[in-house]
Amino acid sequence: MSRHRNMHQLDDDDFYDEYDDYDEEYWEEEDDDSYWQEQERLKKEQEAARQKAAAAKLAPKPAVKTQKKTVTLDLKKPSKKPTTNKAEDEEKERLVVSMGFSSERAKVALKNNNGDVQAAINELLSSPSPVISMTMAPPSTMTPPPGYNNAKSTSGVQGSWAPPEPTSKPKVEFNIKKKAPVVNTPVAQPKKAETKKKSVNEVVYQKQKIVPEMEKKLKDQKSRLSMVILGHVDAGKSTLMGQVLVQMNMVQKRTVSKYQKQAGEIGKGSFALAWIMDEDESERERGVTIDVATKHISTKKHDVTVLDAPGHADYVPAMITGAAVADVGILVISSTRGEFESGFDTAAGNGGQKGHVGQTREHITLAKGLGVSQLIVAVNKLDAADPAWSKQRFDEIEARLKPFIKQNGFKLNRVQFIPMSGLTGVNVKESPSKTDQNSAGLASWYSGKTLLEAIDNFEPAKRNIEKPFRFIISDLYPEGKGLVVKGRVAQGHISVGDKVAVLPVGDVASITRIDHGVAIAQTDTDDDDTERMKIALAGDSCDLVITGIDIARISVGNVISDASTVLRPRIKKKMKAKILVMEELTVPIIRGSQVLMHMHCLDVPAVISKIISKVNKRDGSEIPKPRVLTGGSNATVEIKLNEKLCLETYSDCRSLGRFVLRRGGDTLQADFEYLILSETYSLLIDTYVRDKKERNHLLNAIETVPCVQKKAEWALQWCERENASFAERCVAFAAVEGIFFSGSFCAIFWLKKRGLMPGLAFSNELISRDEGLHCDFACLLYKQLVNKLPESRILEIITNAVEIEKEFITDALPVELIGMNSGLMQQYIEFCADRLLFALGCNKHYGTANPFEWMEMISLQGKTNFFEKRVGEYAKSGVGGEENHVFAMDADF
């Protein structure tokens, strides 16, 4: 069964940001200095504002205004705070604090501007530095700051504090995360200020002061990259990475010899290099990678964490986990005839299976959607091409892949194509030579980079060290009195001794130790930098040892953030997001579709609760409230999750602002049956309707055919109507299953009677049997309810459904056939409605006999299974009798 993949980015207001535009900015060289230029501009603006305020202070002022100024600057707290919306006030304060101002100044500015965030920010940007000017004698209990005295001040006020002569201008320190500079100036402090504990915001500010120092250290070190290995199953990913480790002397020769001997003994000698990556016995036995394998390599410019992802379609979730934490990727392509086509093509005409979606195509789409921005395409097994080292085959693969890679958002100047052989090691580390028998064929036409040179050619990933700390937990275990949590720092930085919050539970813990897997900080003396080892920065894969939290309160997929509430990510169970549906989608997405959301280490069931809009492919306009999403749709939807998650906009945090939705496979067993039925309908249309335009018209019937649209709207209203009781929903469900399908099923059985379309008839038998069971289940469930509906209400629901189905049949059968026409079919629908009314405990309404006697003779003997019944029971003899007016789960069908 084909599956579809949905790529998502979150809006600024609705958890989304256009990442293509973001990526363009990301790669502009001038962006490296734009932040500091902005800081200089703000510095000049604040200095001008401070001078303006000083001049205004010297100007004569009315006495009344002076009195008001004195009252406003009173340091005493108000006796009683007004009643406000605490959550809303905290959110407003967080927005103002995010611009670089202290929490106290933010509160005052918001109060002065009646909660207007923009006005408060403008006031703070235009106001002078926070110097408290006293125009009246300070309280006697307040101790003057160092350098001040209680003598008569320069203003002539007896008893006020006279500041010392300034020796230099106030020192301006820049908050790395925020855009506004913070000015340190003398402020009156209580007596016990030196012993008072620092606030969380002050701790965060102190942390940010070390960022410039850390950035300087990072410039002297190799950059750190996470690199995911992608590709179709059997493309040679693990073998290629094993060859890389061997040629870089990362594996002992005796280990390689041992693997070669063991693999040869079981007749899999070519698997020896792959076993370096696939260490699990089940992976070696089956010859496929199942979980993400991790290794470390080092080039001239980069320290690289290699993530070998599985290529089999059954293990796509594991591949998503690896790609979600990767900066760059290597796409391994098998160049042998047939293997490349099976991984990339989607139709039988191009060499693939009908309806098949190759993992090459899917991995490219997923990698870009999960944040991989640079790619190496390793054209592997070129020595096994026909002829060996064929330049024509290499050019053919490159020509076919480039348009698709570009279509998925990759910039072609960041994509490198490298020919090689992972098994023999040609062009992995050493360039091909015309004198070498193994590589002479490649050397005759290729003189470009080797694989390791291409890896070294990757641009360093931009690290958002200045942003709020985000650490995604991938594993955890107890150690002594604390816990060890493994994972990767998505952004920000943390130091030993810092307080952190574990989300979504919200518990606060302490960092007692940071363990880095490899020596990452190298000084000029090539010794480990112990200070660097006590800090985890954005991009580091490390272990955090934390205390102060119970292991039962934390799990894989949790997020560790700064302890400050204003710096934590949002925790949501419902969100609005923009999605891009893959072109290969065969089963359309409608409101209520169940999907599986993959985000970093998490797989969470979710529901498409609303389809808000989609983009018109012709003119780019917005189509509001579409009924269905087909392949290639770009839409805005509302998604409801089964549990609360940490979510942020893509611009705030890439790792928490991007995710993948998938539908299909065993994960969604509760809805798996409906996926099978929908897939069957789609395949039948694809088989019997050859005209592409007509096929699209039928696949989108919910939008293009009015009578079908009316049926869909009637069914969906019971899902959306908030005041509908469970009993009403149950009866409506029975009507959908027992009435809306009846006419179509009967028409296809008429075809079977005449020996026409056997494939369609057989599929119809299986589907009609299942829908009949659904109808019976709804009736049995309704019989168990205590609060049943009045008979008049049941009759109203059933007759309404009958009229809609009659309208559908009239449009579906515009001509009269022998023994089949819309008039007879309407009688049959009324007969089915009477049967359903009896099943629900009501009297017959229409009193119509079954016009199709042959419907009573149909059976599925020989095809039944557990809880399966004959379709002929739909019109079982005597079903309207009083003695049969009873349903039981142990009935003998």
TrEMBL record:
Q: Which UniProt keywords apply?
A: Cytoplasm, GTP-binding, Hydrolase, Nucleotide-binding, Protein biosynthesis
Biased composition (Acidic residues) is annotated at 11-35
Q: Which InterPro entries match?
A: Ferritin-like_SF, GTP-eEF1A_C, P-loop_NTPase, RNR-like, RNR_small, RNR_small_fam, T_Tr_GTP-bd_dom, TRAFAC_GTPase_members
Locations listed in the record:
Cytoplasm; Plastid, Chloroplast
Which region ranges are annotated with the description Disordered?
Answer: 1-92, 152-171
Q: Name one Pfam family in it.
A: Ribonuc_red_sm
Low complexity bias spans: 51-63
Annotated Tr-type G domain ranges read: 222-465
Major location, coarse class? cytoplasm
Q: Which GO terms describe its molecular function?
A: GTP binding; GTPase activity; oxidoreductase activity
**One CC-aspect GO term:** chloroplast
Q: Where is the composition biased (Basic and acidic residues)?
A: 38-50
Q: Name one GO biological process term.
A: deoxyribonucleotide biosynthetic process
Q: Where is the UBA domain?
A: 87-127
Q: Which reaction does it catalyse?
A: GTP + H2O = GDP + phosphate + H(+)
**Family per record:** Belongs to the ribonucleoside diphosphate reductase small chain family. Belongs to the TRAFAC class translation factor GTPase superfamily. Classic translation factor GTPase family. EF-Tu/EF-1A subfamily.
Q: Which protein are we looking at?
A: Uncharacterized protein
Question: Which lineage ranks, top first, belong to the organism behind this chain?
Answer: Eukaryota, Sar, Stramenopiles, Ochrophyta, Bacillariophyta
